[in-house]
Amino acid sequence: MKFSRSTTTKALTSVLALGLAAACAPGGDDAESADGEKLTLSVVSLVPGSEAEAFAAFDERVAAFEAANPDIDVESEEYEWEAATFASQLAGGTLPDVFEIPLTDAKTLIANGQLANLQEEFSTLPYADQFNKELLEAGKDDAGEVYAIPAKSIYGVALHYNRALFQQAGLDPDSPPTSWDQVREYAKQIKTATGVPGYATIAASNAAGWQLAAATYARGGRLQEVDGDTVTATVDNDATHDHLEFLKALRWEDDSILADTTLSWETANQAFAAGQFAMYTSGSDIYNTLVENYATTGEDYGLTAIPLDGDDAGVLAGGTMAAVGAEVDEETQAAAVKWIDFFYLSNLLDEEQAIANAEVRAANNQTVGTPVLPIFSREQYETANEWVAQYINVPLEQMEGYTSVMFDQPVVGEPSVKGQDTYAALEVPIQSVLTDANADVEGLLETANQDVQTLLDEG
């Protein structure tokens, strides 16, 4: 959902950051519109409800961009991608010029003619050929032209846990669970010892299916098979079945799961930050949200790898792409690519930009150094972290369960065709096992599989 909020960008609070950004940002003075007036570029900022410090850090970066590009005025709007509202916002033209989309959505939006072709401006970026090829492919059309650019963070799904609740239950927070059986054992022990649910799963909206997909991959299953132009739904696989039975057992045998069927991505994060449950799975970058939105300090936060079980087990990887609507004019498209370059990507590739960005974030008590997967190469990712080492403020020693294996775990992309529709179809099975002790998992998955296959056949 999006709410309007114009950022206050005329007053700088960090002269140093501005100077560094102005010195190295590309394109300085060629974005003036055809009539000689300043070009106004609307962009997404932060999730509604973010902390004041997060907005302060964002506003400083906007001010630095405007100083480096004096012919562009940036107007920002709070934004959170939601499946239920995004399509109508895009169709109605109410999104900012630059908006964010999940990796899973780009191909469909391109095919529908809803995104601007950014190939010409993208090709001028000095690092255009350095992207992870698979990530960049997600934003290309059949002719190989770029319509959406990998941005922000690319995550691998991981297990997040509350170290304080572990300690209260007599568990070692430095030895988090490494198997699904252990997750169940730990969840039950935490609930028995503390009265707080040991586990939770997102159960509402497409995010519910997203996390069931992550668990399916982690148990060796897949949700679809692609053979050329033929796509077959495999939602009713053994791995998905096993995880639903796992959730059902936590609910009805152990009473160790937070049985809240309204938990969305946002409310699950909020509940976890408030200590209302001990463990859940989500993207490895979720610590950023916990800090930006809920003022988490990190003292009790723990991050470890999602348990992998089975020969084909893998980690669901996903992330965010920056895109521009098809109706946006060419001058604004050019300004949009400058913003994407400056705000999302330059701090991964340019040392001065990286330091400027890290200084601003650290000064405003925002995260620097949260573990994510690289948009470019592992080498470049590690180099960029070295540039900003003095500013890293996330509790890396409490994240070693993930960081020690993040480059070694097999990575699997999200469903490539009708991904969001597939996720939506999995909401009913998840909610059913949390609300009905006699839920027929096999029947639920059979129905979901039929529904997904129908959508796939429709194209």
From TrEMBL:
Keyword Chaperone carried by entry: no
Cleavable signal peptide: 1-25
InterPro entries for this protein: Bact_solute-bd_prot1, SBP
Keywords: Signal
PROSITE patterns: PROKAR_LIPOPROTEIN
Source organism superkingdom: Bacteria
Family annotation (PANTHER family): ARABINOSE-BINDING PROTEIN-RELATED, SUGAR-BINDING LIPOPROTEIN
Protein name as catalogued: ABC-type glycerol-3-phosphate transport system substrate-binding protein
Organism of origin: Cellulomonas cellasea
Source taxonomy: Bacteria, Bacillati, Actinomycetota, Actinomycetes, Micrococcales
